[in-house]
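Q: what sequence does this backbone want?
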């Protein structure tokens, strides 16, 4: 038994340190209820991975510590806690590839930097192609990836079968057979809630305040600039406000009178009962609308494409579970007897070009980190890094210039649907 655990169990006076200061008691004594300060340099709306990462990098790289992170629920209760934790950079556009490759680079050193095991493991990511058109897109993506130094290649069915022996290349004759795949060796998974906790602790250690159960009711604007936010705990002055709330973005942008092309769709997933490790890769099929990986606890984590209706709701449905299960069995007949343990849904804020909206906005001091659809988790560290730069210097970071809201007026879209629609 570890000595640390023994000390914790036998010593009545020993206190296990908190991950971060208690949200309602922001003093070391943990016995004096704290209130929001009258004014902050930066207010971040959203206590998910993106908001917490931005707070962390603001403090670490820019020495901006008078920051409040406001979360209406609890840390990681939104999209950060409702995703399937796939990390990759095999995108289609040069802008997307550079952006996500930086995120993969950051992820690789994040456990050491944040002093917390994020269970980051490289698995290899296969995007299966069931048609000539899908195979052409795979080749296109591979060429873009290789040109930018990202490890991706198109592989044939024999290669897929060799490294995934349980897969049925013919899909049982119920679906078009697998003709090849885009293979991305650096494709990885991580523990999503650990990423949120680690960034929260890192930000807290540098003086950032994290306030849970704190909802934003309105944002005050004067002469086209942010002056503060109204919360359920009172008004807070701030000249800079970041919205990082994913599926709730449209509610926040309405407060500042900002129009965006975002639409919100539910996205469902489920996990199986834990079973012995057998799937050490990540398998995605755009034709079957499924993806699957196995967690470090042995659960099979699987999901599908967006629900086809606009709805701000996290309900899950039997129709989804039945459809996904059928397609999984087409691809992996060995799973027919495995039980589904739990099912859930998240909210996806989608843009017309399947790329995010990031950076400054026409409202001075209001910054946006949105439009993440099904691919926000993999961008967590790079979003924090680039948004912290953007807020601190009031200029968009080079990596996110292409993702500005104004691109929809200029019609300079970043078309990423071919690499982002299912391969979460």
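A:
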């Amino acid at each position: 038994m570890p000595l640390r655990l023994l000390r914790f169990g036998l010593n009545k006076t020993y206190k296990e340190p908190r991950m971060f200061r208690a949200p309602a008691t922001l003093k070391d004594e943990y016995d004096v209820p704290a209130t929001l300060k009258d004014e902050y340099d930066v207010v971040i709306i959203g206590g998910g991975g993106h908001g917490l990462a931005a707070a962390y990098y603001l403090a670490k790289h820019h020495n901006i510590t008078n920051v409040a992170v406001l979360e209406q629920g609890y840390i990681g209760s939104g999209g950060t806690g409702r995703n399937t934790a796939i990390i990759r950079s095999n995108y289609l556009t040069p802008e997307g590839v550079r952006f996500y490759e930086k995120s993969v680079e950051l992820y690789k050193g994040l456990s050491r930097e944040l002093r917390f095991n994020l269970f980051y493991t490289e698995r290899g990511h296969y995007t299966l192609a069931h048609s000539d058109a899908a195979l052409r897109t795979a080749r296109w993506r591979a060429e873009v990836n290789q040109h930018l130094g990202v490890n991706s290649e198109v592989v044939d069915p024999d290669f897929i079968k060799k490294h995934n022996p349980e897969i049925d290349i013919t899909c049982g004759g119920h679906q078009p057979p697998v003709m090849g795949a885009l293979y991305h060796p650096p494709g990885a998974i991580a523990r999503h809630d650990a990423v949120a906790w680690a960034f929260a602790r890192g930000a807290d250690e540098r003086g950032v305040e994290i306030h849970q159960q704190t909802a934003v009711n309105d944002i005050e604007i004067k002469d086209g600039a942010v002056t503060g936010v109204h919360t359920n705990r009172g008004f807070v002055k701030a000249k800079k406000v970041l919205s990082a709330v994913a599926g709730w973005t449209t509610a926040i942008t309405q407060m500042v009178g900002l129009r965006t092309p975002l639409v919100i769709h539910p996205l469902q997933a489920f996990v199986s009962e834990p079973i012995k490790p057998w799937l050490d890769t990540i398998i995605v099929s755009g034709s079957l609308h499924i993806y699957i990986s196995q967690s470090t606890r042995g659960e099979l984590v699987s999901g599908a494409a967006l629900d086809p209706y606009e709805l701000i709701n996290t309900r899950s449905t039997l129709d989804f579970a039945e459809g996904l299960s059928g397609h999984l069995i087409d691809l992996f007949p060995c799973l027919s007897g495995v039980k589904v343990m739990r099912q859930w849904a998240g909210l996806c804020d989608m843009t017309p070009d399947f790329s995010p909206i990031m950076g400054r906005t026409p409202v001075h001091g209001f910054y946006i980190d949105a439009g993440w659809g099904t691919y926000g988790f993999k961008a967590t560290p790079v979003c924090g890094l680039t948004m912290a730069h953007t807020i601190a210097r009031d200029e968009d970071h080079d990596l996110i210039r292409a993702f500005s809201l104004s691109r929809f007026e200029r019609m300079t879209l970043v078309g990423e649907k071919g690499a982002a629609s299912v391969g979460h």
